[in-house]
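stuck on whats below:

***
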Amino acid sequence: MKTIGELKLETDVPVVITDQQGFITYINDCFTSIFGWSEAEITGQMITIIIPMGFHDPHHLGFSRFLSTHKSTILNHPLQLKAITKDGREIASEHLLMAEQEQGQWFFAATLRPL
């Protein structure tokens, strides 16, 4: 397990963490192995780089709503979604999204267990 603040994350599944602006701040080795992105290539990129184009608008809406209200219906519930690999393939995966606030800033983490 890796601990990011109070978030305890499995390391045997792909993990990605973003800041509250949606910039990727961390990926684990399992993410690199399955999705093909190196840490240097993806750190600092917007999370939408791994979200299929058709889900960009719903993602932005939900992200903005959460930052305004601090309420969510999708956090801590497994979701079957897709994520984009470096070579453009879509991988179906079970996403578990978590959020934590530290010193007034939100951080978001997701595990992306391939299906």
